[in-house]
Amino acid sequence: MMKNFDENIHSDIYENLINSYKQSKIPHAQLFDSKYGYGALLIIISYIKYICCKDKQGDKFCNTCPSCLKINNLSHPDLNFVFPVVKKSGNKSISDSYFEIWKEMILENPFSDLVSWTNKLDSGNSQLAIFADESREIVQKFSTHPYEADYKFMVIWGLDKMNIQSANKLLKILEEPQPNQLFFMISDNSESILPTIISRVQRISLNRLSDTEIVKLLANHYNLNIDESSQYSRLSKGDYNKALELLSTSSQNGTYLEYFKEIMRYSYSNKVLQIMEWSDKLADMSREEHKQFITYSLNLIRENYIMNHRIKDIVYLNKSEEEFSTKFSQFINDTNILQINEEFNSAYSDLISNGVAKFIFLDLGLKLVKLINSK
Ligand SMILES: [Zn+2]
User: For 110, phi and psi rounded to 5 degrees?
Assistant: First the structure.
């Protein structure tokens, strides 16, 4: 079941869609021109749910009738999805071959984009595309009447990934609209869609989500308090995927901040034994995390140097980093900044040339003892 994404987003667009249904004027094909993180798929699914709902309440679907439940599971027999896939020898290159994986991703996060899909497929360098085989499937799926609903729905996710043969076939289908067939398409790159297709569809430009909408989504799905949610929503520029990305970086940064505080505390008070234990602990992280920790530290050092020079306006730190830096920044000054940077940078190069992490961190810690105490 789609993780209860029943938030009311883009209510103005949703209302227009509902009105077109009520006036029996649903366009045959609609293209949602939008970043995936703005929620186009969620709007489309809500709309289809409304159209099919057996127990509509005003402008709302009930979310409990069999039809609503099937759509929530993306398993309604009249609801079809097309999305880019990779070409595999032997297999037909069609969405149905990959549907279970795609469904899993969308049920987890209906805002998922092509980058999440590429990662999910683990497709490496293979190009994602909607191939010619797919258009034959569309024709075939649309050759029968709807099973349960009044319409058959075809949602094309990533329309711009359609290759030219496939696009030409789609064009033919779009040129002969059937009254009980509806197309919903999504693209975040509509410049690469054939103009002849564009001319056959009604375009809906979806704007970014509002800060309030993002705050609500984060609060409902990630248990964040208002302060945290507001911070991410401000930085996400209305893109839910961006907000999620910031969220995941920031929870990792919380760990890095703790490690950074520890080493600065041990170095300041010259606690060699603790510095050794600290090096062992950090050595257990992955190489990628080592690099991230060093990059994070370099950034924090820079911000503290700026803070020490009282140029507070241009400092960007989150709340816990700021709390720490208010006291710590006095230790990063003109005498030591260059050399501290140099030590972190050289640890970085040693790490990427496969040096022994334990010794690299120990060496770094011991060098900091002197540097952090120089006034
Ligand atoms: Zn319903």
Answer: -65, -5
Specify whether the CB–CB gap between 58 and 50 falls below 8 A. Answer: no
Round the average pLDDT of the chain to a whole number and report it.
Answer: 92
Question: Which residue shows structure tokens 């398993």?
Answer: 75
Mean pLDDT of the region 281-287: 92
Is 186 domain-assigned? yes
Contact 338, 274 (CB under 8 A): no
Nearby residues of 265 by Cβ (< 8 Å), 6 or more positions away? 271
Distance 47 CA to ligand 1 centre (A): 11
pLDDT higher than 70, residue 3:
no
**Per-residue DSSP letter, 162:** B
Q: What are phi and psi of 129, to 5 degrees?
A: -155, 160
pLDDT in tens, 310-325: 766 666 787 788 889 9
Looking at residue 131, which CATH number applies to its domain? 3.40.50.300
Residue-number span of the structural domain to which 120 is assigned: 11-207
Please state, in angstroms and rounded to a whole number, the distance separating the CA atoms of residues 115 and 242: 12
Mean pLDDT of the region 201-217: 94
Distance 62 CA to ligand 1 centre (A): 4
Protein residues within 5 Å, CB atom, of ion ligand 1: 53, 55, 61-62, 65, 68
| Per-residue tokens: 371 | 């540097």
120 in any annotated domain: yes
What band does 1 get if pLDDT is binned at 50, 70 and 90? low
Claim to verify: residue 199 and residue 259 sit in the same structural domain: no
Whether residues 56 and 192 share a domain: the answer is yes
The pLDDT score that the predictor gives to residue 12 is: 94
Edge-first strand order for the sheet with 79-82 is 79-82, 152-157, 181-187, 29-33, 202-205
Burial of 319 (0-12, 13-18, 19+ CB in 10 A): exposed
Segment (H or E) for 118: helix 114-121
pLDDT at 2 over 80: no
| Alpha carbon distance 135, 159 (integer Å) | 12
Tell me the pLDDT band of 224, cut-offs 50, 70 and 90: confident
pTM: 0.75
Distance 46 CA to ligand 1 centre (A): 10
